[in-house]
Q: What sequence folds into this?
């Protein structure tokens, strides 16, 4: 069918702008899908390769002190492949130019042989020589945060003694993809550093000769981790061990998992919606495109072309567009997916870049869009070919016009002649108008769903840091202290207010569910770390029972009044049974609170605190921090500003990368949809508009009719789209919930406004194009042919 | 002429349309025989049923009742697929609005038909017959109305059809151009012995026919045989 193919190519060429706009919609859907799917696939692959190559351990346990011989006993447990006994020690850092103290963790590396697991990747410099003293390796994110270089020296307070250590190498570790300070909820590259030192050198500094206080375990294939953890616990608990935990509770990995989960939601849900919307729009656009060719279909049939031949011809037309759209979409998606993976690789500090793109990903998007396009086209072709050809060649039968409701009730004068034409033509094509409306609304909703995330994130941070956590910083002691520590803190320079805190490492259990987190003991009447209810009103900590964040209660499936079991994982490791007294709002993490005195009573201890929340006089903060740096009992201090910053740099950054692409693509889709709608409306009405020109209407009058019709559709679609956007966003926030945080449903007015501006600008541009067509309209031709 | 074979045998043909809420009786019992090689002119006012009749002859539409045989095959019993084959191999159409595919050149519009016909002429030959050999690479928009109609005729005859059905072929043309188009139709009838049926409401055109069928109100109102056909050049309107 050479001639038909030529017709096809020429028509594609002739209507290139429209073909391009259709391809754009499809390419956006496909590109989005390919980009995010391949990025996710690549990141998971990268992480797996990283963990595998650098031997990320399966189980972890920390203890007070055990002789090295105990490590061999753990290794002898059935199912344990290898163990790695080392020293882990918390230090205070003194960084020149930094007012507030920073903390660090120093880990030992074996002397003279490779670490059996948790190996380091050397970014810069060299590894340590056996038994080398005075030298450390530092993690890359800390080095970068402070602009440190090889050969720079860091000052650390280790075991009460100040040590000056030279950085000889910059490294990455699978254990610290995210460097989270112990007990922290957010990575903090500025205020928390990880260092590695020769085992020999470190054991002397911290009085752990011939001993270890940290054990990593690699399991044999198919070993039962839970059983082995129990056995390790029994073996090591006499040595002051905490409960062993696996990869899922390892801080860095847990955080990474949450980030992946969030990427996964954004990377599957949003592209799926994009694809669905693109497919729907393709369906609509192509079916209308084909309807404008009904006279040609009639002629072809009159000349003896079979229904199948006509169908095949238009199918080819569609498939060509789909093919081009999918090639462009896939290529752009793969290219952007690679770039995105590269960005995330840097963001996560992965030492390797593994870009993976499978054929399944490429096919899914294409097949999905192709199917939708073909279905849309086929239904249009079918309706064209089932018409008797004689009828198909005539212009579409003018539908029965009815006087409008307004006219029938005698308000005819209210509408001008052009307004009546507009309103009638809208009224007689309810299906066409609704589909146009639906298309624009969907595009609008897609944009709002993509863009609202930042609003929601900002609201969440405001609530978290201005309503809930109002302290300037919190300090952590090296071990629980008596209550008078509060007074001692209050006497430090610049301290305006001190509120005692006690954190316990716990595992909550309710029925068959459990969750490991920390339990905070708060003093009654606390005003710095506040508990708020759903309406963000202050609630006081009850004398009895535990308060839980929404996320924790949901995770455990527990309700107010029910009793949960709390396994305390430090101290004497008691098991408590406490009723849930209330649920509190909180967007970050899973948290639980209990009255401080109740906590001490449950632990059977005299009142003790493990830290405090402080309000500082900013003017005196220098003096305050200078003093704090010399108090060995304070091993950590968390600045709320730093947590805020860390959240900005990690979670918000992660989301904003994805949001940027979502917003860009949804904007493009909105444009493509509106442009197509205007073009098709013009094509469908060309004959009628031509007639109006012939009978003496001016271009402006004719344009007013076309623009008015489109304008009404757009105006109706705007509120619908905003409503749809709200619904899509609310569905989305429930999907986006992770253990790390949950998003409130907040959409700023500016987001709605921007969505509306995009639609209006696209409409204006498309109408301008239509205006050019009206100017150029050949009246005779317009009367004879469909377009 | 009277000795030639009967190509259409039509008996008591009716056609009813549903138009909105009313039923329109487009044909109310037409009985007619058409012989191979005849040049027929179908006359009648708008709504008299002549277009409906032509569409049924061409297999574009099916009758409500009655019989219509084409070379002893009952068109009324044909399936949609058989009707397609029938149009493809035996019928050429010429429409008042030409119905050319605007994206194809004159030659390609003709090739649209020759691509699927059994033993077609070359598209160039067909265009030569209608005197448009030199314009074959032009697109419809570059041709005058008369030229477009001649392309449509070339497209219709290129398959060597047994029957050429023309619905108001000169309706959109001025007299001078109309005459050129009619001359082409007459020439095809003469040279290829193609049966030609022309619908018109221009009574002057009737003089070029072998036979004139007058439609009134869905019936054949009168039937006249011209003793002598005039050439289109001799017709004035």
A:
């Amino acid at each position: 069918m050479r001639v038909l193919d030529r017709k096809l190519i020429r028509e594609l060429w002739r209507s290139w702008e429209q073909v391009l706009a259709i391809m754009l919609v499809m390419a956006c859907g496909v590109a989005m899908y390919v980009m995010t799917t391949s990025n996710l696939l690549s990141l998971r692959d990268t992480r797996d390769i990283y963990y595998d190559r650098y031997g990320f351990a399966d189980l972890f346990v920390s203890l007070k002190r055990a002789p090295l011989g105990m490590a061999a006993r753990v290794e002898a447990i059935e199912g344990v492949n290898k163990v790695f006994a080392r020293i882990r020690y918390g230090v205070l850092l003194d960084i020149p130019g930094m007012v507030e103290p920073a903390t660090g963790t120093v880990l030992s590396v074996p002397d003279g042989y490779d670490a059996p697991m948790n190996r380091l990747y050397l970014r810069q410099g060299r590894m340590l020589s056996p038994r080398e003293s005075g030298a450390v390796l530092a993690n890359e994110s800390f080095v970068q945060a402070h602009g440190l270089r090889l050969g720079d020296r860091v000052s650390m307070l280790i075991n009460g003694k100040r040590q000056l250590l030279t950085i000889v190498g910059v490294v990455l570790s699978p254990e610290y993809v995210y460097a989270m300070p112990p007990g922290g909820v957010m990575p903090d590259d500025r205020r928390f550093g990880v260092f590695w030192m020769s085992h020999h050198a470190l054991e002397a500094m911290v009085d752990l000769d011939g001993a270890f206080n940290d054990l990593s375990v690699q399991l044999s294939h198919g070993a039962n981790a839970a059983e082995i953890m129990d056995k390790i616990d029994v073996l090591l608990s006499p040595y002051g061990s905490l409960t062993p935990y696996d990869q899922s509770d390892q801080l860095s990995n847990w955080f990474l998992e949450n980030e992946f989960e969030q990427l996964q939601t954004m990377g599957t849900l949003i592209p799926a919606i994009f694809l669905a919307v693109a497919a729907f729009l393709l369906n609509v656009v192509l079916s209308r495109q084909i309807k404008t060719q009904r006279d040609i279909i009639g002629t072809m049939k009159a000349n003896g072309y079979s229904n199948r031949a006509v169908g095949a011809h238009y199918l080819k037309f569609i498939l060509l567009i789909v093919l081009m759209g999918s090639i462009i979409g896939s290529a752009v998606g793969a290219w952007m997916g690679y770039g995105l993976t590269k960005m995330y690789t840097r963001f996560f500090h992965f030492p390797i870049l593994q870009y993976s793109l499978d054929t399944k990903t490429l096919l899914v998007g294409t097949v999905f869009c192709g199917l939708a396009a073909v279905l849309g086209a086929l239904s249009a072709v079918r309706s064209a070919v089932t018409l008797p050809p004689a009828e198909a060649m005539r212009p579409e039968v003018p539908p029965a016009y009815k006087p409008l409701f307004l006219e029938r009730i005698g308000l005819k004068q209210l509408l001008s002649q052009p307004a009546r034409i507009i309103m009638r033509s809208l009224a007689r094509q309810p299906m066409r108008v609704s589909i146009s409306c639906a298309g624009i609304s969907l595009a609008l909703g897609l944009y709002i769903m993509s863009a609202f995330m930042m609003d929601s994130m900002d609201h969440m941070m405001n609530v978290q840091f201005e309503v809930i956590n109002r302290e300037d910083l919190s300090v952590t002691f090296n071990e629980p202290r008596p209550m008078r520590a509060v007074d001692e803190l209050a006497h430090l320079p610049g301290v305006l207010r001190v509120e005692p805190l006690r954190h316990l490492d716990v595992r909550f259990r309710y029925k068959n569910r459990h969750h490991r987190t920390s339990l905070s003991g708060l003093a009654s009447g606390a005003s710095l770390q506040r508990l708020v209810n759903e309406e963000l009103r202050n609630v006081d900590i009850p004398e009895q029972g535990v308060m839980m964040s929404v996320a924790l209660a949901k995770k455990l499936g527990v309700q107010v009044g029910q009793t949960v079991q709390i396994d305390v994982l430090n101290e004497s490791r008691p098991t408590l049974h406490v009723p849930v007294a209330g649920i509190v709002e909180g967007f970050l993490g899973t948290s639980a609170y209990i009255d401080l005195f109740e906590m001490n009573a449950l632990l059977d201890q005299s009142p003790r605190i493990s830290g405090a929340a402080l309000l500082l006089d900013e003017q005196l903060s220098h003096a305050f921090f200078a003093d704090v740096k010399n108090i060995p009992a304070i091993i950590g201090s968390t600045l709320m500003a730093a947590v805020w910053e860390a959240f900005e740099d990690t979670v918000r950054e992660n989301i904003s990368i994805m949001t940027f692409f979502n917003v860009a693509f949804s904007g493009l889709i909105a444009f493509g949809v509106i442009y197509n709608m205007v073009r098709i409306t013009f094509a469908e009405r060309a004959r009628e508009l031509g007639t109006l020109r012939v009978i003496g209407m001016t271009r402006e009058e004719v344009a007013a009719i076309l623009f008015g019709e489109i304008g009404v559709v757009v105006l109706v679609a705007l509120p619908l789209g905003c409503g749809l956007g709200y619904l899509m966003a609310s569905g989305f926030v429930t999907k986006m919930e992770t253990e790390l945080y949950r998003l409130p449903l907040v959409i700023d007015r500016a987001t709605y406004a921007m969505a509306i501006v995009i639609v209006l600008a696209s409409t204006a541009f498309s109408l301008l194009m239509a205006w050019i067509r009206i100017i150029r309209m050949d009246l005779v031709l317009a009367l004879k042919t469909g377009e | 002429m009277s000795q030639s074979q009967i190509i259409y045998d039509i008996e008591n043909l009716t056609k009813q349309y549903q138009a909105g809420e009313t039923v329109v009786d487009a044909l109310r019992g037409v009985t007619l025989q058409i012989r191979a090689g005849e040049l027929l002119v179908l006359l009648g006012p708008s709504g008299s049923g002549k277009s409906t009749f032509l569409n049924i002859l061409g297999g574009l539409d099916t009758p409500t009742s009655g019989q219509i045989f084409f070379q002893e095959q009952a068109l009324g019993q044909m399936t949609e697929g058989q009707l397609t084959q029938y149009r493809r191999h035996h019928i050429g159409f010429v429409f008042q609005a030409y119905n050319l595919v605007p994206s194809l050149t004159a030659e390609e519009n003709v090739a649209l038909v020759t691509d699927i016909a059994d033993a077609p002429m070359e598209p160039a030959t067909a265009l030569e017959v209608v005197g448009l050999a030199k314009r074959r690479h032009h697109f419809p928009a570059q041709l005058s109305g008369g030229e477009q109609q001649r392309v449509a005729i070339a497209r219709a005859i290129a398959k060597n059809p047994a029957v050429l059905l023309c619905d108001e072929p000169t309706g959109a043309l001025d007299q001078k151009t109309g005459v050129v188009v009619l001359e082409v139709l007459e020439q095809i009838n003469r040279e290829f012995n193609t049966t030609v049926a022309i619908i018109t409401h221009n009574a002057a055109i009737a003089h070029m026919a072998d036979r004139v069928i007058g439609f009134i109100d869905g019936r054949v109102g009168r039937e006249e045989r011209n003793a002598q056909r005039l050439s289109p050049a001799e017709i004035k309107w």
Residues 495-616 of chain A form a domain with the Barwin-like endoglucanases fold (CATH 2.40.40).
